[in-house]
Every structure is written in structure tokens, then in C-alpha cells.
TrEMBL record:
SUPFAM superfamilies registered for this protein in UniProt: RmlC-like cupins
Protein name: Ethanolamine utilization protein
Superkingdom of the source species: Eukaryota
Taxonomic source organism: Lachnellula occidentalis
Length: 119
């Protein structure tokens, strides 16, 4: 019989976790947790964008994101463009090219079908 598995808690991650700079002068992203399934890993964490250079990102994996604070302007190559605010949920399919910008700042929590640090 397999040993029981314990869950993990990341106390106050939304307010305490500071994602590292990943692009430009204003785009920050960091994984908080990654599953242990080597064949189909899932990573989750936070993406923060501050006013400044837009981030253009091409997804090499499927991702879901919920906006937890601030606001984004999100557009894609199809011409779709939305103003995203707290509580909005997005699905970004593998292969999509998304542009993120913000008039002030935005904070999103994401879950992506990828290995830790592979964003």
C-alpha cells in the first residue's frame, strides 16, 4: 500500500511571494509550486506586470490565469483585445501569441502544463 501524500500550503503567497524579473524592466514571473508528475507536469505561480514595455509572449504550453489584482490589457494575433480586471479568468492555448500591457500594474495567478521554470 502506498504511503499517504500530504498537501502543501504556501502561506500568504499572493501578497508575500515576489516573482523574479523575466523580461524588459517590468515583467515578473515565478513558479510557486510544480507537480511531481514527470510526464505531465503542472506549474503554478504569479505573473506581475508594471507600467512600461508591453510583454509579447508565445505560449509553448496551455495555461489558465486569473487576475487577482490590478488590470491588464490583453490582446492576441486574431485582433481580440480586452481589459482584464480582478476576477477575470483566461485560457491561453499552446501556440497563441499574447500581448500584455497595463496602465498601472497587474497581478495574475497562473497554472500551466509545463515543468518548473520552463516559462
Amino acid at each position: 500500500m502506498a504511503a499517504p501524500l500530504a498537501f502543501k500550503q504556501f502561506v500568504q503567497a499572493q501578497t508575500e511571494f515576489k516573482p523574479p524579473l523575466i523580461a524588459n524592466e517590468n515583467a515578473f514571473l515565478g513558479d510557486v509550486a510544480t507537480s511531481t508528475d514527470a510526464t505531465a507536469p503542472i506549474s503554478a505561480g504569479f505573473y506581475r506586470l508594471e507600467k512600461g514595455t508591453p510583454l509579447v509572449y508565445e505560449y509553448t504550453y496551455d495555461e489558465m490565469k486569473i487576475i487577482v489584482d490590478g488590470e491588464y490589457e490583453i490582446s492576441d494575433e486574431t485582433g481580440q483585445k480586452v481589459r482584464a480586471t480582478k476576477g477575470d479568468v483566461f485560457y491561453f492555448p499552446k501556440g497563441s501569441k499574447i500581448t500584455f500591457t497595463t496602465p498601472s500594474f497587474g497581478l495574475g495567478f497562473f497554472v500551466g502544463q509545463r515543468a518548473n521554470g520552463a516559462a
